[in-house]
Structures are given as structure tokens and as C-alpha cells.
Amino acid sequence: MSSSQPIERPLAPWRPLQFSLRALLLAIAGLAALLALVNVVGAGWTLLVAFVVLLVAAHVAGNSLGTALRDRASDEHPLPPFDAPAGPVPRIGPQQLAERARLCRLTVGLFTAIGAGLGAWLGAAALAELHLRGLTDGGLAVGTFSAAVIGGFGGFLCSSFVLIVRRAWREAVVHRDPPVGSG
């Protein structure tokens, strides 16, 4: 048998879930802390905290599982060595989207201003409508300004998206391939 061929190993079956007494006690302590948090801050905030903790735990577990699967797959099937092609690589198709280009300042500024104005108007209307009896003029001003900033970000996002889609559409139309069978 030559040394260049990988050794075939049978796949090991997944082991059932195992945990130690320490892990069980930590889980019980976490549950006790969660129930104490319900008593202190209420159910809504506790659900938010529990959601964030579960989100972080799922991320860590997924990362651990993905790393284990990647390492297991790379041990079983190593990638062949990559040979770089000799000479320059030909460019295929339109390349304008790969190039950096500035967005139109007028369009971006206009969309951002419209988004900020719309956000300020909707934010002030929402704050006034939400029966906030203790809302002062300063609170209304800060809330309106915050809504205007969020609206401005939304307007900038929309303008950037529209301009990039427009550029991609133009490039696709100009560099359209001829139909098959013609020519």
C-alpha cells in the first residue's frame, strides 16, 4: 500500500449525551438563579435574559460541534494539493461590480434626509400617541432626535441598496450574453 493514499477508518458512532454531576449541579444553580431573577425583575426581563443566555449557549455549542465535524472531515478526506494555473487567469464576464465606486452623494443625502425627517415625524407621533403622561418636552425632543437618527440610517441603507441594485441591473443588461443557437 502506498503512503500517498489516506487510511480508511470507519466512522465512529456518536456517543449518547453524557454529563457529570458537576454539570447537573451547575444547571440546577442556573435554574435557581433564573427563578430568583423572575422574582426580582419580573417575567419579561427574565425571558429576555434567558433568551440571550440560550442564544450564547447555542452559539457555543454550534461552534464546538462545527469545529469537531470540520476536524473529523479533514482527517478523513484531506484536500488534494492546489496547483496554481500557469499564466494569467482570464477575466470572465462583467467586472464592474468588483470595482469600488462612490455612491451618488446627492441621492444618498436626499434619501438620508427624507429618512431622518420621516423617522422624526413618526417617532414624535408615536411618542405622543403612546399615552406617556410623564413625558416632558426634553424627553420628547430626545425621542424625536433618536427616531430621526434611526430614520436617517434607514434612508442611507435604502439609498445604498437602490443604487447598488441599479448598477448591477445596468451591468447585467449591457453585458447580456447572446441567446444560445444564434450567430
Description:
The protein has about 180 residues and is mainly α. It has two domains: about 20-75, no CATH class; about 100-175, no CATH class. About 65% of the residues lie in helices and about 0% in strands. It is built from four helices and no strands. The chain has helices spanning about 20-40, 45-75, 105-130, 135-175. The two termini are about 55 Å apart.
In short:
The chain has two domains: 21-76, no CATH class; 101-174, no CATH class.
* Count of individual domains: 2
Residue-averaged pLDDT: 80
What letter string, H or E per element, gives the SSE order? HHHH
Low-confidence stretches: none
Summary tags:
183 residues, mainly alpha, 2 domains, 4 helices, 64% helix
What secondary-structure arrangement, pairings included, does this model have?
Layout: H1 21-41, H2 43-76, H3 105-129, H4 137-174
